[in-house]
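EI: anyone free to look at a 118-residue chain?
SC: sure, send it
EI:
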Amino acid sequence: QVQPEESGGGLVQAGGSLRLSCAASGGTFSNYDMGWYRQAPGKERELVARMTRNGGSTYYADSVKGRFTISRDNAGNTGYLQMINVKSEDTATYYCNLHTANWIRNYWGQGTQVTVSS
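SC: here you go
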């Protein structure tokens, strides 16, 4: 089964940029739609951005539109979330999710922490 692993989190100043990566191993990355989710302390996990397996369709939460960009490199088995102009409310643990179109197979990474300082 495919296993996603996030990296690239860290401490960033408000207004700065960060790029998260989701490396997939153990399976064929291009078989899966990809989503980035985040969870802040005391809050529910929320969908941030999503991209279909061929990259043809994307979705962004209103809170990140114009600031975050989701992308993927199927040949390199890696997905990305480019974050610019980050805000304190972006502070959260970010998770990569890979799933088949019908969600029968669904895999989560361990998460990477993003902390935005003001």
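EI: The chain has a mean pLDDT of 97.
SC: 👍
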